[in-house]
């Protein structure tokens, strides 16, 4: 990265962070890098120097980062100055406030210098982060509805009640009694009612028993056999109030009955009671689903903390224990700490990315890139890894020098790094891993001569499926699958008794239609 001629202002109350970042900026060619410990000091510097960008921490004494941002945006001379906020927190209100005051980028601690420099390069080029990308940092909150703390009355006006009766006069009476209370879908036969159920979500059914062709009992029995309709409560409308008739309806799955001729007051009371029960049951189901997802996310986080982070943290601990290293071994110790820290951060980033992809909250920023330049992002580290294990990689892509692909470079690199690394680790000394791209079908293929056992093939891309490896967290192929799907693409395992091949197709970018 070349920062030649650029002037950068660093604002952070943590001296060592400022010094480390400043050194990197100077080495990258920055003309001037000034430091401020808080917003007040930053404003004094901003009054005298025309900077190209401001990198500011959020939490600082005196004026914090958001206060500094507000002042900059309100200043006629400074309001267009690119600004990045850096924080260890992703509180929804904080991020929303930053977006409201037009923050240009948002970096979450911990981060690597490489990531900071990549984001700074985009910032200086005017490629600012979108509100959607910044909001993707926010984790799903524990809201009141999820926790079951809301106890307000359900909204009956939005509820839909289907009335099934072959008598037009009866339909008119019932519709007249309920029309101001809820949404109504009248039907004069079971056949018409089926069509309504296919087109509209229904919360409650008022069902006449005595109908030609198919009576209420038969239609009720059919509804209770359908998975998507069986939980809709049914109230029978009947002139038959004999105990055996009522019992038959209840045994078939009805929750109540109303005798005819219908009395509006009684009808309203029973409809309101059962709508209340149904809508509350629906809410309870939604809460259950959300809580299950949250429990799963907690289990994922626990797994990461208890297993995935243990090895890199242990390496750091060992590197810092014991007697002080002599001068000749200091570099090795620091390299070990650096590598282990990167591993720990990679595990955290991977887990958070998966969580956002699973919730549909991860932005995919696709651009047109030269295929060979894209491959160079991961070619060298993959070659080095292969060499360390006595494996070779054959890159069947060099003939595609002018090929352009549309992909998110960072996440695309993640897809193929994970898959190629898995292929290398599954190979034996002397094996060759083939990496190829077919421009006609836009298919990438990664092939190695080690077969995947038949018993693990059905779950090859599932979460935590490690395929018998003693190390690894089973997230690499799962993340590759999520990212391929996020690119509107596909991923497929082609396994035989002699080889394993994974094919990845990056799909078309969705078209955006703008209404005028």
If you had to describe this structure to a student in words, what would you say it looks like?
The chain has 516 residues and is an alpha/beta fold. It folds into 3 domains: 7-135, Response regulator (Rossmann fold), CATH 3.40.50.2300; 156-283, Response regulator (Rossmann fold, 3-Layer(aba) Sandwich), CATH 3.40.50.2300; 367-505, Heat Shock Protein 90 (2-Layer Sandwich). It has 16 helices and 17 strands. The chain has helices spanning 15-27, 39-48, 65-74, 92-100, 113-124, 131-135, 168-178, 190-199, 216-225, 243-251, 264-308, 310-320, 327-358, 371-388, 409-426, 476-486, and strands spanning 7-11, 32-36, 53-57, 83-87, 105-108, 160-164, 183-187, 204-208, 234-238, 256-259, 367-370, 392-396, 404-407, 432-438, 443-448, 490-495, 500-505. Strands 2-1-3-4-5 form a 5-stranded parallel beta sheet, sandwiched between helices. A 5-stranded parallel beta sheet has the order 7-6-8-9-10, with helices on both faces. A 5-stranded mixed beta sheet has the order 12-14-15-17-16. Helix 9 links the parallel strand 8 and strand 9 (234-238). Helix 11 (264-308) packs antiparallel against helix 13 (327-358).
